[in-house]
Amino acid sequence: MNKWVDAARIRTLPLTVACIILGNAVAYNQHCFNIFIFILSLVTALLLQIIANFANDLGDAIKGTDDQTRVGPQRTVSLGLISIKEMYCGIAVTITICCIVGLLLLYLAFGNDIYSLGLFVLFGIMSIVAALCYTLGKHAYGYLGLGDIFSFIFFGILGVLGSYYLQNHSNCWPLLILGCAHGFLVVAVLNVNNMRDYHGDKLKNKRTIVVKFGEKFGTIYHCFLLAASFVCYTAYAVSNEKYGAMIFIPGYVILLISLYHILWRNVKKYNIDPELKRTSVGALLVAILFSLGLVF
């Protein structure tokens, strides 16, 4: 069982939790909240993230990206802890469970609203396809430098707006800036991963943003992502007169500590792998604090 827990990459899951919390916090603030919809939304989103992580493990192993040159934790398929066939089965089982939970969620949220049901079934299919195609297949978008865009959209914008709409069934576009705020932090975590794997990815022709434009650009890009997220969170709080939500600011301390280590990594010969977890936890803390400010 431990090998499957490792393959699920637990330290990436806070990002998924965060987007669901944010969307539901806004719905709660507007007096439209169902605890069961919240729980099912959370489970469905986590299953989608696990599907993506399983597929990532499998795809990188098949392409030979994960070998002895890897800087971060070794993956289960490349180590032989889980066979390729077993991982395909694991992905299939997880997709099946995700579909069952997701359909239950949609029925509870929308009942006989065929339009909303159809729209979210489409979103669900798109999310599963996006999770699988990150590193699987000949045209895996994670190898083409498109991982940042897809992560921003699915685990940032759609995650926040979709979880809100499941509760409130009303116009969710005013939450776009909040979805962007979290989306920038999702990409920041991915960027740490790509900076860590820069040399290995370059050798294996995995064309991430960092490989395309270099390590220095990756560092500047990371600063931009943190700053853009901060600006979006602040803009949403101020424009909606939710000044209590500004308690999110202390959460950025963790992100700034992580940034400090990233900036000095070459000078101090520091392996930034721990910053992946720290940035992920920091993003979750920011989302929780912001949500508490909305709710209370």
Label this structure with key terms.
0% strand, globular, 73% helix, 296 residues, mainly alpha, Farnesyl Diphosphate Synthase, 13 helices
**Average predicted confidence as pLDDT:** 92
Runs in which pLDDT lies below 50 for 5 or more consecutive residues are none
Number of helices: 13
CATH class bucket:
Mainly Alpha
CA gyration radius, whole angstroms: 19 Å
Number of domains: 1
Care to count the β-strands?
0
What would the CATH topology be?
A: Farnesyl Diphosphate Synthase
Please bin the fraction of helical residues.
over 70%
The secondary-structure class comes to: mainly alpha
Secondary-structure element series? HHHHHHHHHHHHH
Strand content: under 5%
What's the CATH architecture name? Orthogonal Bundle
